[in-house]
């Protein structure tokens, strides 16, 4: 893509009403635009990042046998009444239509997915089953000042699993845990903690939160640097300096962003909604469930919170909107244009800053702000040497290399 064709423009200043680092940088770079507090449009560059994150999640979900579906965002009141959550879920957006019929905007989909499952699961032979979707969720969030970290409208991948017994449920739960760690690693996170947290209204047992350490985090966890013990501060009565219940090491405390959360549901939904199966002996039993949430839009915000500097965003390669940015500062020369064609033909995702009305300084500043992992500069000097200047966004040094080497490195 050519930058001269991109309809979004970078901003010198962040919008005054944005306080979070992720929203300030993403808005300045033209990745997102706020419509209202907690409600954002994803512009071309931002949409590409979101799609990349979703693609990673989709791939990993399919690997563990998840079957992808798409459920409605508009839910009739009756389905939420079946579990008693119409009255208890205070974050539900409720609406009335012209015929006075009441609806909720989907905040989560346990009721809807259980309704689907009860039509298809009859026998133990239909189990286990894992169904997921990637979809827009709506929640009446009180605090929506954290940009993509807390939207009133946001994207979620929600997976639901159905089992004949607790042993099978646990086995799959552990598989999903590992899958989440793979996803987060591919999204660029080197440091992820799996924290025990309250099971919420769902269960007496712990749920597990996937926590990314950063100062911008709204969560506080206690963790052990020696073993993998970690607990959300909200539920634990351990203090920093206390001993790790696993290994005795001194516990530490840190701020984190919760990017994923997985829950044991047991019979919480299957019992009230009549989701049963016949076991081998013909006995009717309630299906055992778990659910697993992960937020692509929150992940995008979290990546920006973790990977940035005073100049802009530093995208990890697998989620970057483009792999390479060509910055053309040589006047009246087609070297950059040719390189753009060659890189594209070789299969690289290239953004090409071909803008004629921008100074070299402005182009370099935008390159840093946009955060594309590799930058190639084409200048009079590099042309005279028959080379290209290559730089990694997250490193300081530059390197002069020839085209053959360049194509080999970037494709
Ligand atoms: P939090 O405690 O941060 O409010 P939650 O525990 O209510 O989140 P879950 O219901 O567990 O969230 O949702 C699963 C995942 O969906 C979260 O881990 C997060 O990645 C994402 N998510 C939840 N709420 C939001 C939101 N308001 N904006 C963006 N992403 C969200
Ligand atoms: Mg949660």
UniProtKB/TrEMBL annotation:
Alphabetized SUPFAM superfamilies for the sequence? Class II aaRS ABD-related, Class II aaRS and biotin synthetases
Q: Which GO terms describe its biological process?
A: prolyl-tRNA aminoacylation
Q: Which GO terms describe its cellular component?
A: cytosol
Stretches assigned to the Aminoacyl-transfer RNA synthetases class-II family profile domain: 17-316
Q: What is its EC number?
A: 6.1.1.15
Q: What class of enzyme is it?
A: ligase
- Which InterPro entries does this one have? aa-tRNA-synt_IIb (IPR002314), aa-tRNA-synth_II (IPR006195), aa-tRNA-synth_II/BPL/LPL (IPR045864), Anticodon-bd (IPR004154), Anticodon-bd_dom_sf (IPR036621), Pro-tRNA-ligase_IIa (IPR002316), Pro-tRNA-synth_IIa_bac-type (IPR004500), Pro-tRNA_synthetase (IPR050062)
Among the Pfam families in the record, one is: HGTP_anticodon
What keywords appear on the UniProt entry? Aminoacyl-tRNA synthetase, ATP-binding, Cytoplasm, Ligase, Nucleotide-binding, Protein biosynthesis
* Locations listed in the record: Cytoplasm
Q: Name one GO molecular function term.
A: ATP binding
What is the first-listed, main subcellular location in coarse terms? cytoplasm
Which reactions appear under catalytic activity for this entry?
A: tRNA(Pro) + L-proline + ATP = L-prolyl-tRNA(Pro) + AMP + diphosphate
Q: Which NCBIfam families match?
A: proS_fam_II
Q: How does it assemble?
A: Homodimer.
Query: What is this protein called in UniProt?
Result: Proline--tRNA ligase
Query: Organism, per UniProt?
Result: Candidatus Tagabacteria bacterium CG09_land_8_20_14_0_10_41_14
Instruction: Show the taxonomic lineage.
Output: Bacteria, Candidatus Tagaibacteriota
In the UniProt record, the gene name given for this protein reads: proS
